[in-house]
Write a structure and sequence with these properties.
Helix content of chain B: 55-70%
Shape of chain B: globular
Largest sheet of chain B: none
Strand order of the largest sheet of chain A: 6-7-8-3-9-10
Domain ABC transporter (chain A): 4-236
Largest sheet of chain A: 6 strands, mixed
CATH superfamily of chain B: ABC transporter involved in vitamin B12 uptake, BtuC
Shape of chain A: globular
Strand content of chain B: under 5%
Pfam family, one (chain A): ABC_tran
CATH class of chain B: Mainly Alpha
Order of helices and strands of chain B: HHHHHHHHHHHHHH
Radius of gyration of chain A: 19 Å
Distance between the termini of chain A: 51 Å
Largest interface: A-B, 42 and 39 residues
GO molecular function, one term (chain A): ATP binding
CATH architecture of chain B: Orthogonal Bundle
Keywords (chain A): ATP-binding, Nucleotide-binding
Strand content of chain A: 25-35%
InterPro entries (chain A): AAA+_ATPase, ABC_transporter-like_ATP-bd, ABC_transporter-like_CS, P-loop_NTPase
Radius of gyration of chain B: 24 Å
Order of helices and strands of chain A: EEEHEEHEHHHEHEHEEHHEE
Oligomer: heterodimer
Helix content of chain A: 25-40%
Structural class of chain A: alpha/beta
Chain lengths: 270, 364
């Protein structure tokens, strides 16, 4: 487990500032949810946290080590990334996909060692894919593909995992299963989510983004307030607690007409 | 059934995991396949050397090879007469060896290009790398560009330029769709073919033009030791160096970001692989002209048997490519004897249907 922090993290592309002085912290061993409307910078932030894009300014730290001081391989030995909607260009089996997770640990010529095989077996077991390990990746359902990517991430024996909208395209059952699995892991997770109720139920800590800036951060009941949601998403909501379980519940009432709520100013007719 | 089960399902022991009819790939263990491939290669080298106007026995071939490589003590038979010995050692054997080396280079190039462009239809010939290498070779020979620069260097430069052009047109780091990669390859290939034609028209007389046209179709005729040795050494070194990048090639399966997140330095790996592929393709083209489709045929066939993991895919493709081209060349020189077919014509006859098959599988 490890803590991820950013200080004054900014990133621009073609003069547009997509992330603006982000200060955030993902606590050790907790699930941190990244929230915000489309284009608020969730995916971009995840790419910077993963070291896949170089920060314009500011820093990303893993525990107390600056990301730029960690080598790519050293980073891959502690951090796993689950991207959105990945595709394979040739036929691979589920097991071969999961074995990719051992890449940062293996030498250039090494065959998978006993420890590699055990780790892959355990990751397959954990994600309930043992019976499907010889299946062709292309024949899997969306939920199974997502689970296979998570198994690959687990095979990296990570201390931190970053996930970009892992519940996309999954039915309710698979969404819950995936997040149940995620919260049961002994790792720090940063996960971009669209569904506020899932965020309320599964995240220990939330970071709310708008136009590449942090609007609010903290425990779910501090972030998921009607005012903040109306302000950022432009939706009037009712927030209460579900009587049986006591988890926070967000009920959508209507879209608001407040000017501040319009997600992105778009020039055009009308 | 008259009484339905009342017991709630969740109190039962978890149902045994159902054994799904698995689409298993790579079921044959790689070491066994490798051993088989090496045996096939050695047998093919000896067998292919037997074909020709004068009859030679297999053991004589083995003896001749052993004698000339300083292992005469192990030779199983008496030396051949001088003339036959020269025929085997100076003419037939170098040609077989060249076929093996060229087949290796093209098959490995194909496997690498398929991973680097993330496109199952990639092949050095189809992507225009062979075409660019031909242009470089012809430019050096006919126009005398670069003075003392050798034909191989010209081929290498041409291969690198065409590969660079291909990647530039594909837009650098982004992942292009398979059809876009292939169409861009056609474009690059046609462009360099046109440049080659211009050079031939301007720089060559009728005789050299005919010779070059034949060479451009891909032929292993005229293999001589001095050229073959260099080609074999360059190709073996290049293929060995590519083997170092096997983990990177695997990691490319889900794209550049996924590979980077697995600790691969993607830019460095792609540049390295691009240069190495150009080197071995150029060495092959300089020695034998542009022989197509091997890079498509061989890696796909090997993947079906041994799976897509490059650690075994690369060496198996290398050896299978060698065996394949050795036998293609045997066909080329015996099928219409005494006339010889260009080997490239035969690989195209076999490769075009294979291309159609891969295309069909890609769409399903």
């Amino acid at each position: 487990m490890g803590r991820i922090t950013t200080t004054r993290l900014s990133w621009s592309v073609e003069g547009r500032r997509l992330l603006d002085a982000i200060d955030m912290a993902a606590p050790d061993g907790k699930v941190t949810g990244l929230l915000g409307p489309n284009g608020s910078g969730k995916s971009t932030l995840l790419r910077l946290l993963a070291g896949l894009r170089r920060p314009g300014t500011g820093t990303v730290r893993y525990d107390d080590v600056d990301l730029s001081a960690l080598g790519r391989r050293a980073l891959a030995r502690r951090l796993a990334v689950v991207e959105q909607d990945v595709t394979a260009h040739h036929r691979v089996t589920v097991r071969q996909v999961v074995e990719l997770g051992r890449t940062p640990f293996r030498g250039r010529f090494d065959a998978p060692a006993a420890h590699d095989r055990r780790t892959v077996d355990a990751a397959l077991e954990r994600t309930d894919l043992t019976g499907r390990q010889h299946r062709d990746w292309h024949t899997l359902s969306g939920g199974e593909k997502q689970r296979a990517q998570l198994a690959r991430a687990l095979a990296q024996e990570p201390r931190e995992i970053l996930l970009d909208e892992p519940t996309n395209h999954l039915d309710i059952r698979h969404q819950l299963e995936l997040l149940d699995l995620l919260t049961s892991l002994d790792v720090s997770c940063v996960v971009a989510l669209h569904d506020l109720n899932l965020a309320a139920r599964y995240c220990d800590h939330l970071v709310l983004l708008r136009h590449g800036r942090v609007v609010a951060a903290g425990a779910p009941d501090a972030v998921l307030t009607p005012d903040l949601i109306a302000d950022v998403y432009g939706v009037e909501v009712l927030v209460d607690r579900e009587p049986a379980t006591g988890t926070l519940r967000v009920t959508y009432l209507s879209t608001t007409t407040r000017t501040a709520a319009v997600p992105a100013p778009r020039p055009g007719p009308g | 059934m008259t009484t339905p089960h009342e017991t709630p399902a969740r109190t039962e022991a978890p149902a045994p995991r159902r054994e799904e009819a698995p689409v298993r790939r790579g079921r044959v263990p790689a070491p066994a396949l490798l051993l088989l491939a090496v045996t096939a290669l050695l047998a093919s080298v000896v067998a292919a050397t037997l074909f020709g106007s004068a009859d030679v026995r297999p053991l004589d071939v083995v003896s001749t090879i052993l004698r000339h490589t300083g292992l005469g003590a192990f030779a199983p038979t008496e030396p051949l007469p001088k003339l036959l010995d020269a025929l085997v050692w100076e003419s037939r054997f170098p040609r077989v060896l060249l076929a093996a080396a060229v087949g290796t280079a093209l098959a490995v190039s194909g496997a690498v290009l398929q991973a680097v462009t993330r496109n199952p239809l990639a092949d050095p010939y189809l992507l225009g790398v062979s075409s660019g290498a031909s242009t470089g070779a012809v430019a050096v020979l006919l126009l005398g560009i670069g003075g003392s620069v050798s034909l191989s260097t010209g081929a290498f430069a041409g291969g690198l330029v065409s590969f660079g052009l291909l990647l530039l047109l594909l837009g650098g780091g982004r992942v292009a769709s398979p059809s876009r990669v292939v169409l861009t390859g056609v474009l690059v290939s046609q462009f360099f073919a046109a440049v080659t034609s211009v050079i031939l028209m301007v720089g060559g007389d009728a005789n050299s033009t005919r010779g070059f046209t034949y060479w451009l179709l891909g032929t292993l005729g005229g293999a001589r030791w001095e050229g073959v040795t260099v080609t074999v050494v360059v190709i073996l070194a290049g293929v060995a160096a590519i083997q170092f990048s096997a983990p990177a090639l695997d990691a490319f399966t889900f794209g550049w970001d996924a590979a980077a997140a697995l600790g691969i330095d993607v830019t460095a790996a792609r540049v390295r692989l691009m240069v190495l592929t150009s080197v071995i393709t150029a060495a092959a083209v300089a020695a034998s002209g542009a022989i197509g489709f091997i890079g498509l045929l061989v890696p796909h066939a090997v993947r079906v048997l041994a799976g897509p993991t490059h650690r075994s895919l690369l060496p198996l493709s290398a050896i299978t490519g060698a065996v394949f081209l050795i036998w293609v060349d045997v066909c080329a020189r015996t099928a219409f004897s005494p006339h010889e077919l260009p080997a490239g014509v035969i690989t195209a006859l076999l490769g075009a249907p294979a291309f159609a098959l891969v295309l069909k599988r890609l769409e399903s």
